[in-house]
Structure formats: structure tokens, C-alpha cells
């Protein structure tokens, strides 16, 4: 394969003189916005709509959508179908030749996409203008994109059309803000950092990274100048080796804020999903256990496993699970960017349509508890989550408490309480042990969480929160409602991009002076089985001691490996009738011996009533 560089080499030459040299691809630290003026000063104004919106749509659509997770008869089970080219190690020339004819647009109706998003209650949309494979939905005029000897053209739109423009226009018409995802990687461009990882290089071409930076600059300029207002630029992704000036960020950011003064950028010009550069942090398929204090952030999550369309990925999340991810994110102060992956014809999969329509039904009633809210004032709540506005707490109930009411841990005077579904019907609020009790009628979680509004006097004055007994009598003491003392290294470790179903857990317990306790409310006397849920690790062993009601439960972590969290029984806790009258019971957990680097991670300790 011979590569013809001449045309685009000449066109790039002038701009290349303005690029920074390859002095350093990696940056351990970066000034905010690379020190470019205009960004920090305008951040609060630029972020106003984002902080109000709380809910957006991510659209992954590109040439990979035509593959649908399979290529030339071979199915690739990996959970990110948009990465199929690299899963299969497919040369770009072959990849384009096979998939371009399958990118048919037969069912492509961007106006229907936009109407669905609006119906779901979404306030903004982010579209993959170009993904890692290097093909663009927008009509780039960069010479390599127009014509090259590797894939013919890096532009996907049929002659006379611009798919990116059609989609952005449709969403703007429905009143949504619009953003452009733009991949910093490029598996086909011969001057990218990934050059020739997938493609042959018979001429021994040495990639010119300055030329590639010029290509990135030119395409971002096209997105910013040729398609009207751009509310967000969503670059993706960086590594320790390639970040910041490796992409030419100073030049890009200097001009971008001039081209689009109101634009938001994420933090992915730099390495790490939670780095504090740019305007927003971008956790992917996981929710940080305590949010990301001190910064705006957004969780992108999928309805099944893949972002890009996969015909064989039928692992669709249930509607209650999607709602739990959505509400938990907002309750911790983040935005929820829910992904959809249309197929190569442009059709959104039916299960995704159904989920979005059901979210829309819930939002039609409860959107007040989402839009413009701020993070919960509470550490954790057994029955669900909380969002707030001035003078109002919104209680999102997922699990109705055993007694049929919520003991709200606040000292404030309650002025009124009512369900958002019936705002004119006031709930009778009683006070018990100084805490307001909010009644919760029975409901089905299949319709989404029940939202109760509690109007209070003044700012929330939070009291100590007790772990409550659940409807089946269990008391679950998990990482979320744990109280950490000393905590020199001890912290809550959450799920991650590659294991989004991982429970939050107490980890990095390296110091025996660290302590953990839970204050719980036991509602019935009797005997309870005591279970610990932990992650086995042959290098992390030691001994724990759980103490409560004058009873002690030692537990020795043995030398064992495991791929997932497991339960072990500590013993039986006896609870007398006298304890039921106490305001709370304290459960103390301490390390009596730590071997290796640390103790294993602990997800929860659970009390299970023994029926006699």
C-alpha cells in the first residue's frame, strides 16, 4: 500500500509552523486550561446551563455501527463494539471496504432521535463526530479526510449531505444543547500516535506528529466554525504518554474560546477521568462513591454493555437499574449522560427506545427533583437518594422502609411534605426522637422511584444518620453509610469503567489505628446472623473484630484469591427487647492484625433475622 502524502502535506505546512514541538508528550501536572486566558474567568457563566440540565444523551454512531459487533462472520464479544477494528486487528483499508456499503442510513431519522430525547427529559446531546477509527460524520475539508490512499475518504456522509449537520440541527430545533465528541486517537491516519498499529507500512513512513496535531486543529476548527453554536467539545482520550500539548492544546484552547465563547470542554485532553483540568470530570460507566467535590462532573453510562451498536449485546439494564444510576449520579452532584448506539441503518434499538420512553414518563411527573438540583446533604440513605433546592429536599424512594415511613435525619422544622405525583395532597408528618417521620405509601419500583418533597425552614441541619431496618428485617451496613475514624489510608473504593457493577467497598485499610462504625436502628428483638461481604486477596490478610451489644465477633481473612466479593459468617448476634427502646445501636469494626499491604476490601456487614 503506497501512501500519497503530497496534497495534505502541502496544505498542512503553513499551520505546522505554528504548532509546538514534540518536547513533551506527557504532563504530570497542568495549569487550568493550559493557562490559556478566557476560560477560568468565564467558567461559571459557561457552566450555568450544564448545572441546570442534569440529564443528557450520548450518541455513539459511526462506521463501527455497521459492524454491530461482528466482522466478516466473526463475532467479537468484547463489551465496547466501537472498538471492533482493534479487537479484530483489522487494517483500515479492509475495514472501510467491508463496512462502508453496510452503513446504509435506511432508517436514519435524526428528527425522531431528537424528539425521543426531548420526550425522555434530556436537556443536551453529545454526538460522536469522529471516533477512534478516524471516520467523520461531518464533512471535513482537511485534505486527508477528503481523499487518501488508505480508506478513500475519512468522511462518511453521502454526496451532498452532512450527517453531523443534520443531527445537530434536529436537536437544536427541539431546544436541546449540542456537543461534539471528538476522538484524539486515529487508527488510520499515518501520522497519528497509533499509526501503523493496524495498517501495513511498506514504505517505512515515520509518523510526523506535528502534522497530525495540525489535522486535529483543523477538524476542531471546522466543528467550531462551520456548524453554528457548539455548546460542548468532548475530546477523547489521553494517556500519561500523550496528553496536553501532545495534542496541541494551547493553540486549540486559545482559538476555541474565541470561536465559541460559551463552549464547555471536558477533561480528556489530559490523562485520568477525574483529573481537574477543563470544565467537567468524566467518570465512565461508574459513579464516584462520594461524587467529585470541587468540580463539575458527568457520568456517561450505557443501557446495555456497549456504547456502539452491538447486535449480540442483549444485556439490557432494567428500567429500575437505569433510574438508580441516574438518580444516584444527580444526588451526588453530577450530570447523567445516557448513551444510545443506533445501528448502521440509523435505527435506535427497540429496548433503548422503551427505556427512554419510560424515563420520559417518570420525568414528566418528577423532573422538578432533577433539573437545577444540587447534591444531597446526607452521606447515605438506606431507602434511596436525595436531591435538593433552596428550602426543599426531594426524597427519591427506591426501597420503602419496613415501618412505612422515613426517619429523616434533620433538625429543621418541616413546613410541608407531599408526593410530586400529588402535590396538593399533604402528608402527615410526625416527630419521633426529634426527627421528622415522613410517611411513604406503597408503590411499585417498576414505575420508577417515588419522589416526596419535604419543604424545610432554613438550610438542612443534618443529624447523625441511622442505618434502618429494611422491609425484610435485614440491616445492611455498607461502605456508603460507614463512619470512618482516623482514616489515615482507609477510603471508599467504588466501581470503575471496566467493572461498573462492582460494589462500593472499604479499602486500603493499612493502619490498625483506623476504625469504622455504624449506628443502626434495630426494630425487632431476637437472633441475627452476622455476615461479612469482602473481596478475597492472597496478599491482603489479617484479623477483624466486630463489637456490638457487649458481643464480639472476630474474623480471620485467610490466604485466598477470588474474582468477586463473597460472604462469610461471623456468628449470631442476640438482641434483647431492651435494645429496641434505645435510640440507636453502635457496631464497631477494628483491625486487630494486618498482614501484607492491607486488609481485603469490605463491601458490607449484614444482620439477617433468624426466624424461630
Write the SSE topology.
Layout: H1 6-16, H2 39-46, H3 48-53, E1 55-59, H4 64-67, E2 70-71, E3 74-75, H5 84-87, H6 92-99, H7 110-120, E4 124-130, H8 143-146, H9 163-173, E5 177-183, H10 209-225, E6 232-236, H11 249-259, E7 264-265, E8 280-281, E9 296-301, H12 319-331, E10 335-340, H13 350-366, E11 384-389, E12 392-397, E13 405-407, E14 414-419, E15 422-426, E16 430-432, E17 435-439, E18 450-456, E19 475-478, E20 483-485, E21 491-493, E22 505-507, E23 515-520, E24 526-534, E25 540-548, E26 551-557, E27 566-575, H14 577-580, E28 585-596, E29 602-609
Parallel strand pairs: 1-4, 1-10, 4-5, 5-6, 6-7, 8-9, 9-10
Antiparallel strand pairs: 2-3, 11-12, 12-18, 13-17, 14-15, 14-18, 16-17, 19-29, 20-23, 21-22, 23-28, 24-27, 24-29, 25-26, 25-28
Helix pairs in contact: 1-10, 7-9, 7-13, 10-11
Description:
The chain has 612 residues and is α+β, with helices and mostly antiparallel strands. The protein folds into 3 domains: 37-369, Glycosidases (TIM Barrel), CATH 3.20.20.80; 384-456, Golgi alpha-mannosidase II (Immunoglobulin-like), CATH 2.60.40; 475-609, Galactose-binding domain-like (Jelly Rolls, Sandwich), CATH 2.60.120.260. Helices cover 21% and strands 26% of the residues. It has 14 helices and 29 strands. The chain has an 8-stranded parallel β-sheet with strand order 7-6-5-4-1-10-9-8. Helix 1 packs across helix 10 and helix 7 packs parallel to helix 9.
Amino acid at each position: 500500500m503506497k501512501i500519497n502524502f503530497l496534497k495534505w502535506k502541502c496544505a498542512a505546512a503553513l499551520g505546522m509552523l505554528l504548532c509546538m514541538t514534540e518536547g513533551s508528550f506527557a504532563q504530570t501536572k497542568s495549569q487550568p486550561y493550559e493557562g490559556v486566558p478566557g476560560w477560568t474567568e468565564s467558567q461559571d457563566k459557561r457552566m450555568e446551563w450544564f448545572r441546570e440540565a442534569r440529564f443528557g444523551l450520548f450518541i455513539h454512531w459511526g462506521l463501527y455501527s455497521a459492524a454491530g459487533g461482528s466482522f466478516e462472520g466473526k463475532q467479537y464479544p468484547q463489551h465496547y463494539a466501537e472498538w471492533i477494528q482493534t479487537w479484530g486487528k483489522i487494517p483500515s483499508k479492509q475495514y472501510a471496504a467491508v463496512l462502508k456499503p453496510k452503513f446504509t442510513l435506511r432508517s436514519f431519522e435524526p428528527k425522531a432521535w431528537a424528539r425521543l430525547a426531548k420526550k425522555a427529559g434530556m436537556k443536551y446531546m453529545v454526538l460522536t463526530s469522529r471516533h477512534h477509527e478516524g471516520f467523520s460524520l461531518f464533512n471535513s475539508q482537511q485534505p486527508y479526510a477528503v481523499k487518501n490512499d488508505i480508506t478513500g475518504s475519512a468522511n462518511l456522509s453521502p454526496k451532498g449531505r452532512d450527517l453531523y449537520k443534520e443531527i445537530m440541527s434536529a436537536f437544536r430545533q427541539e431546544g436541546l444543547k449540542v456537543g461534539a465528541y471528538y476522538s484524539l486517537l486515529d487508527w488510520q491516519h499515518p501520522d497519528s500516535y497509533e499509526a501503523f498499529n493496524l495498517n501495513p507500512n511498506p514504505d517505512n513512513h515515520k509518523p510526523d506528529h506535528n502534522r497530525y496535531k495540525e489535522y486535529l486543529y483543523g477538524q476542531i476548527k471546522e466543528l467550531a466554525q462551520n456548524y453554528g453554536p457548539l455548546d460542548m467539545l468532548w475530546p477523547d482520550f489521553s494517556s500519561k504518554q500523550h496528553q496536553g500539548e501532545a495534542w496541541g492544546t494551547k493553540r486549540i484552547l486559545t482559538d476555541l474560546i474565541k470561536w465559541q465563547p460559551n463552549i464547555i470542554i471536558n477533561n480528556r485532553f489530559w490523562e485520568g477521568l477525574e483529573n481537574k483540568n477543563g470544565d467537567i470530570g468524566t467518570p465512565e460507566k461508574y459513579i464516584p462513591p462520594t461524587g467529585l467535590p470541587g468540580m463539575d462532573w458527568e457520568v456517561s453510562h450505557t443501557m446495555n454493555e456497549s456504547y456502539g451498536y452491538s447486535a449480540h449485546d442483549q444485556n439490557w439494564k432494567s428500567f429500575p437499574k437505569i433510574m438508580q444510576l441516574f438518580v444516584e449520579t444527580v444526588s451526588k452532584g453530577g450530570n447523567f449522560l445516557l448513551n444510545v448506539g443506533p445501528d448502521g441503518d440509523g435505527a435506535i434499538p427497540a429496548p433503548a427506545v422503551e427505556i427512554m420512553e419510560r424515563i420520559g414518563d417518570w420525568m414528566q411527573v418528577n423532573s422538578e427533583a432533577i433539573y437545577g438540583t444540587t447534591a444531597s446533604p446526607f452521606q447515605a440513605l438506606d431507602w434511596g437518594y436525595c436531591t435538593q433546592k433552596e428550602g426543599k429536599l426531594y426524597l427519591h424512594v427506591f426501597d420503602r422502609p419496613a415501618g412505612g415511613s422515613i426517619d429523616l435525619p434533620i433538625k429543621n422544622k418541616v413546613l410541608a411534605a407531599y408526593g410530586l405525583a400529588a402535590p396538593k395532597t399533604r402528608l402527615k408528618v410526625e416527630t419521633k426522637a426529634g426527627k421528622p417521620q415522613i410517611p411513604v405509601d406503597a408503590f411499585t419500583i417498576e414505575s420508577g422511584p417515588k419522589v416526596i418533597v419535604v419543604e424545610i425552614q432554613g438550610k438542612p441541619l443534618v443529624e447523625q444518620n441511622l442505618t434502618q431496618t429494611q422491609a425484610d428485617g435485614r440491616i445492611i451496613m455498607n461502605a456508603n453509610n460507614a463512619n470512618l475514624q482516623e482514616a489515615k489510608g482507609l477510603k471508599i473504593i467504588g466501581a470503575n469503567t471496566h467493572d461498573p457493577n462492582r460494589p462500593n467497598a472499604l479499602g486500603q485499610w493499612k493502619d490498625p489505628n483506623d476504625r469504622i462504625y455504624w449506628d443502626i436502628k434495630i426494630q425487632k428483638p431476637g437472633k441475627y446472623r452476622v455476615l461479612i461481604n469482602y473481596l478475597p486477596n492472597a496478599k491482603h490478610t489479617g484479623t477483624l473484630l466486630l463489637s456490638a451489644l457487649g458481643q464480639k465477633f472476630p474474623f480471620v481473612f485467610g490466604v485466598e484469591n477470588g474474582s468477586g466479593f463473597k460472604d462469610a459468617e461471623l456468628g449470631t448476634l442476640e438482641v434483647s427487647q431492651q435494645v429496641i427502646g434505645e435510640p440507636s445501636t453502635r457496631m464497631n469494626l477494628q483491625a486487630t492484625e494486618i498482614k501484607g499491604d492491607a486488609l481485603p476490601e469490605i463491601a458490607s456487614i449484614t444482620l439477617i433475622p433468624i426466624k424461630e
